[in-house]
Specification:
The chain is of the alpha/beta class. The protein has two domains: 20-40 and 266-355, Aspartate Aminotransferase, domain 1 (Alpha-Beta Complex); 43-263, Aspartate Aminotransferase, domain 2. It has helices at 10-13, 43-54, 66-76, 89-101, 117-125, 173-182, 204-207, 235-241, 252-262, 265-288, 310-319, 343-355; strands spanning 30-32, 84-87, 107-112, 128-133, 155-161, 187-190, 211-216, 229-232, 292-294, 300-304, 322-329, 333-339. The strands form two sheets. The protein has a seven-stranded mixed beta sheet with strand order 2-8-7-6-5-3-4, with helices on both faces. A five-stranded mixed beta sheet has the order 1-11-12-10-9, sandwiched between helices. A hairpin with a 5-residue loop joins strand 9 (292-294) and strand 10 (300-304). The radius of gyration is 21 Å and the shape is globular. The relative contact order is 0.17. The chain binds 4'-deoxy-4'-aminopyridoxal-5'-phosphate (PMP). Residues 89-91, 115, 161, 165, 190, 192, 216, 218, 224, 229 line the site of 4'-deoxy-4'-aminopyridoxal-5'-phosphate. Keywords: Amino-acid biosynthesis, Aminotransferase, Histidine biosynthesis, Pyridoxal phosphate, Transferase. It comes from Roseimaritima multifibrata. This is Histidinol-phosphate aminotransferase.
Length: 356
Amino acid sequence: MSVKSNPFRATLAKMHPYVPGEQPQGGKFIKLNTNENPYPAPPAVTAAIISAAQAGLQRYPDPTASSFRRQAAETLGLPGPDWILAGNGSDEILTILVRAMVGEGERLRLPYPSYILYRTLADIQGADWEQTEFDKDWKLPAAFGEASSDGEQKLRLAFLPNPNSPSGTVLTPDEVLEIAERLPCPLVVDEAYADFAETNCLKLVEQNENIFITRTLSKSYALAGLRFGFVIAQPHRIAELGKIKDSYNCDALSIAAATAAVGSSEWLADNVQKIKATRRRMEQKLTEIGFKVTPSQANFVWCQHPHKSHKEMYEQLKKSQILVRYMDFPEWGDGLRISVGTDDQVDACLMLLAQM
Ligand code: PMP
């Protein structure tokens, strides 16, 4: 085939596009399918966006989002802003990490079922990936932290979503540290949902230069529409990642908004409490109506029914304008992942499920 008829790199031929959850724009859907926050973002965010817009947008933004990094370092109790690199959503941060550490023919590792994007990022690099399967109770086998039996020197990076998606389960910081110490490569702990959990691994980055923690403003800060995420690691690691990122990967409005958001600690604490209370209710009610529910430390719940078809339940809910996520993991199993919405949204969903 000539280059003209197929100009794309060979690796694209075996790839499929990463398919995110359904995102109807407008309409009256109750949206419980992509783990967004059902409540509006901290009020300080809107004021910050307006004031940044009024200041004018004719100049390029601050390339390193310094105001955000200063505020985030303070809020999170980090030694300083040089422990943070900001990006256009944590998906961009994951891309930067893979581009920086995993080359063609090399390999990354992920648990399964987990966030499928990691595999797509490996594919884009022309790299390989290997999966460690959770058991049916979402325990991660020790093999996840071990060297590969074949060609371990090719293993360049491991991803651990913690809390995991779709399960909402967590490993403790001690368990994560033990994995990081055993692994022959760096470990990315994807903490997209950590604000909803009882523990997080932030302190570990100070102990181990091979741990990278990623965070997002899409979930606990209710800013999925803004696109803002970041990675925390030791400053010499952050400096290397800075070589890979686009010059102006975060725009001026997003930087202003994200800075205001991470300064809104009281808002965050209130919001997280509300979501956790609704999550507890969801877990109880789903159990009452016959689901096997995995106890969650995130803003969603993974549930499986012993007799009923998950696909059909998903479709019936959709007919009633309620979107949840039907997930089918070949050779592992399927189920429903339901995001924690407002109490009213969750009640509407639970009522229909109880009638099915
Ligand atoms: N990591 C995990 C585990 C996720 O579920 C998501 C949300 N799809 C992300 C990262 C990406 O979040 P965002 O790009 O919105 O920051």
